[in-house]
Amino acid sequence: MNRMNRMGGSLYRDRWIECTSGALRIRGYYFPWGTKTVPYTSIRGFRRVEMGVFGGQIRIWGTSHPRYWASLDPGRPAKKDALILDLGRFVRPFLTPGDTDAVEAVLRAHVPTTDR
């Protein structure tokens, strides 16, 4: 159990994404199974996108476009929406949580609204 979980617990959690009181944790982001922890203070903005066959839906992990990195999600082909995070870097995390609405609500509560 990490410090953030002891302090506040999970606001949202599925197999690949966890929102704690202080950060977003993305399991399966790094090879082979590494977790990326993104403090909410590091997120400049985010946007919700509708996926399609040529828009990330069949990409289970990695990228075909150097600007976006899709975290591991074997269930992505069955999903319709994704979230793209702006961390102020060239590569932007591409996430497909089990409940996109719930993660978007957590992000809206923790990320300034100026850059969306």
Describe what is shown at a glance:
The protein has 116 residues and is of the alpha+beta class. It is built from three helices and eight strands.
How would you describe what is shown here?
With 116 residues, the chain is an alpha+beta fold. Helix content is 19%, strand content 35%. The protein has 3 helices and 8 strands; from the N terminus they run αβββββαβββα. A hairpin with a 5-residue loop joins strand 7 (81-86) and strand 8 (92-95). It starts with a helix and ends in a 6-residue tail after the last helix.
Topology of this protein?
Elements: H1 3-8, E1 10-13, E2 17-20, E3 23-30, E4 34-39, E5 45-50, H2 53-57, E6 68-70, E7 81-86, E8 92-95, H3 100-110
Parallel strand pairs: 6-8
Antiparallel strand pairs: 1-2, 2-3, 3-4, 5-7, 7-8
Strand order of the largest sheet: 1-2-3-4
Secondary-structure element string: HEEEEEHEEEH
| Rg | 13 Å
What gap, in angstroms, lies between the N and C termini? 32 Å
Helix content: 10-25%
Estimate the global geometry from the Cα principal axes. globular
- Measured by DSSP, the beta-strand proportion falls in 35-45%
Largest sheet: 4 strands, antiparallel
Unreliable stretches covering 5 or more consecutive residues: 1-7
Helix vs. strand class: alpha+beta
What oligomeric assembly is this protein in? single chain
Q: What is the arithmetic mean of pLDDT?
A: 85
The count of DSSP E runs of length 2 or more, i.e. the number of strands, is 8
- Total of DSSP H or I helical runs spanning 4+ residues: 3
